[in-house]
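Structure first, sequence second, as always.
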């Protein structure tokens, strides 16, 4: 991370994470490529009458995202499909007549398609069944719904609004009016399942030397090249401290219980400095 060559202590996946998720906040060009291209895919859906989108839709069809991939596809189509793969999990359908909505494959109830619901047991034999089968004159047909779905799911479907004022089914973003760009929302969604690491958030707020902050971050990520770390990487054949401590060199040892560290802290206390005493690395983090 200092520009030189050396041992890779932390994976790039961790380095690319936002700081509040335990990473270093480095932006990955590869990871950002999909969310940036998703803007083009969303623009073709939201604004199909622009000059480029009219030509694109004329060549690949109104539902171009359902087109099978080919090696001979144009660069424009490849870019759009790359953006669609990132965007599709962030969209849901507004139900009007159900002509364009696949019952099982598209997201029209809450945030996931029925095929991705872990507890859904389907009786629908035709996976390409359109939602218009269950709609008549702008209302849900309860008798047909009960033929395919259970009681709880029927009630959930009947709560889905049918937009009579629109001409046809439309896609919409699941999150709106957030004040953030579409690319930013898609990038954030990558880390939504990662719990914020309070032990590292405080460290980034400290106004200290950059090298010291980097060292503390590596300690918090168990990425310091101590004997136990090198042993796990099969670089060293010993896990004991090499300077005489007859203990395994882990984070607890180097941060709290090392004999040399304890002696230095005792000297500093005799000089009048208030050095706290910790019994483990976890306690050291909480105390810091």
């Amino acid at each position: 991370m200092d520009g030189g060559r050396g041992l890779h202590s932390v994976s790039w996946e961790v380095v690319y994470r936002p700081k509040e998720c335990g990473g270093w906040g480095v932006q990955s060009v590869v990871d950002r490529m999909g969310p940036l291209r998703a803007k083009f895919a969303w623009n073709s859906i939201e604004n199909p009458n622009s000059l480029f989108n009219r030509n694109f839709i004329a060549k690949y069809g109104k539902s171009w995202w359902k087109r099978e991939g080919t090696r001979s596809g144009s660069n424009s189509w490849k870019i759009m499909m790359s953006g669609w793969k990132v965007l599709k999990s962030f969209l849901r359908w507004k139900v009007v007549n159900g002509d364009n909505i696949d019952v099982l494959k598209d997201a029209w109830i809450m945030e996931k398609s029925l095929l991705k619901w872990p507890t859904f047991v389907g009786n629908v034999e035709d996976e390409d069944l359109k939602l218009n089968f269950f709609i008549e004159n702008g209302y849900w047909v309860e008798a047909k719904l009960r033929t395919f779905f259970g009681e709880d799911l029927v009630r959930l479907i009947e709560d889905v609004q049918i937009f009579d004022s629109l001409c046809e089914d439309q896609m919409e973003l699941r999150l709106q009016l957030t004040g953030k760009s579409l690319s930013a929302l898609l990038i954030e969604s990558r880390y939504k399942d990662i719990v914020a690491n309070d032990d590292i958030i405080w460290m980034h707020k400290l106004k200290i030397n950059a090298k010291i902050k980097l060292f503390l971050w590596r300690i918090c990520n168990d990425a310091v090249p101590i004997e136990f770390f090198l042993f796990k990487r099969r670089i060293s054949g010993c896990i004991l401290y090499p300077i005489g401590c007859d203990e395994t060199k882990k984070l607890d040892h180097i941060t709290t219980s090392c004999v040399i560290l304890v002696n230095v802290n005792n000297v500093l206390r005799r000089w009048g400095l208030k050095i706290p005493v910790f019994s483990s690395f976890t306690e050291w983090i909480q105390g810091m």
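Margin note: The CA atoms of residues 69 and 78 lie 9 Å apart.
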